[in-house]
Design goal:
82 residues; mainly alpha; 85% helix; elongated
Length: 82
């Protein structure tokens, strides 16, 4: 429990030390992660499915609703692609 408190405290200090660097770092990690997901989508699905997944991924981020992307993945997994 003490270790968790130390880690949480360090996380809080980092956030308040320089919010600009903190936000930049988090954004860079998120952008790299999304780029990697896009590459994976392109390698794993046909062009039509990949187009739809890329669109839904971006809309999920924009709308702050991951369910949009999840629904399409579930459709594809269950073979219900339109």
């Amino acid at each position: 429990m003490a270790m968790r408190s130390i880690i949480e405290e360090l996380d809080r200090v980092e956030k308040t030390a320089d919010k600009h660097l903190f936000v930049e770092s988090k954004a860079n990690h998120a952008i790299v992660a999304v780029i990697n997901v896009l590459k994976l989508i392109n390698e794993s699905f046909n062009e039509q499915e990949a187009d739809e997944l890329r669109r839904r991924l971006m809309n999920s981020i924009k709308g702050q609703d991951p369910r949009k992307f999840h629904r399409k993945i579930r459709e594809l997994r269950e073979g219900k692609s339109k």
